[in-house]
What does this fold into?
Amino acid sequence: MPIVNRIAEYSDTLTAWRRHLHSHPELGYEEVETAAFVAARLREMGVDEVHEGIGRTGVVGVVRGGTGGRRIGLRADMDALPIEEATGLPHASTRPGKMHACGHDGHTTMLLGAAKYLAETRNFDGTVCLVFQPAEEGRAGARAMLEDGLLERFPVEEIYGLHNWPSLPVGEFAMCTGPAMAASDEFRITIKGRGCHAAMPNLGLDPVFVGAQIVIGLQGIVSRETDPVDNAVLSVTRFHAGQAFNVVPETAELVGTVRTFEPGTRDRIERRLGEVAQGIARSFGLDADIAYRRGYPPTVNHAREAVMGADAAALVVGEERVDRTPRPVMGAEDFAFMLEAVPGSYIWMGSAAGADSPPLHSAHYDFNDEALPLGVSYWAKLVESRLPRAG
It folds into this structure.
């Protein structure tokens, strides 16, 4: 694989940076030390501008080449997850209950590596905005940066994102055209009953029994009301009620997630979830309160930019190692907000160290450092192909 030679030369530096970040994870909007590390490295590299505190803890570096005319953005996320690490590695998290279990330490490192390469070579004609984003894991850091004027202060014509993918071998990439990742919504259903002795259920209104009927009823929204070729998921992930073995409780609570791609499907499932839950509860003489919160929109790659991104990956690993028609996944990603504002694309980069590589969000996961030079080379080839020097 033609990893850029200059990038290969500092692969040890990339590994050291990545392991430092892995050892010092910070959750969303707490990335104070991470942001300071990023800003310090950018200044050492001699990038043209370094801006901090965007979207609370975000950082943007600016590198210009040639005329500095056309402008593109590259984005990496910086936050960790609230997971107790179980890898036992020498560079494991030093912070209890916090862990880089999704590879954002690797994403940050690869974009830093790209900054180093671009600042040294300037082998492009345009302006590159390097966006180090906070709070991707459920707290919408991309939206926070946009609301803080990201695109007004750093206007770009295209923007690109990358995520490591442990289900793909190192040296492979995958790029969807159109929908790549789903919208992510959350719901909470509180069922209001009347408590009583568990040996005399006829004297109460049992929210546990009704909650069980609601769990079953909700599954029909996808399995019986949604077009089978229109991907959607509705999962109840928590059912909490009562504390004693001999008491029918007053209330029960169900929480869960809904994942969709199509706006109409999203609207319909939100409406039907309330109708089904209320209808079942009332049929047994109980009531249900429904709280539905819309989260990230679907991540939808723009057709032209998807081709450009896949082409850049092919320059690094060869066309035979780039899947241009992967199946979309039901996970969510807040880069979606940026793709709603600017044309761009989001690519998956293989990071599997072997057949038994732990998945993302596992307490046993660790970013595969072998992938670091590939990711940096991808960013380098993308910039040089999107902003070519004349002649």
In short: The two ends are 26 Å apart (CA to CA). The CA atoms of residues 79 and 221 lie 34 Å apart.
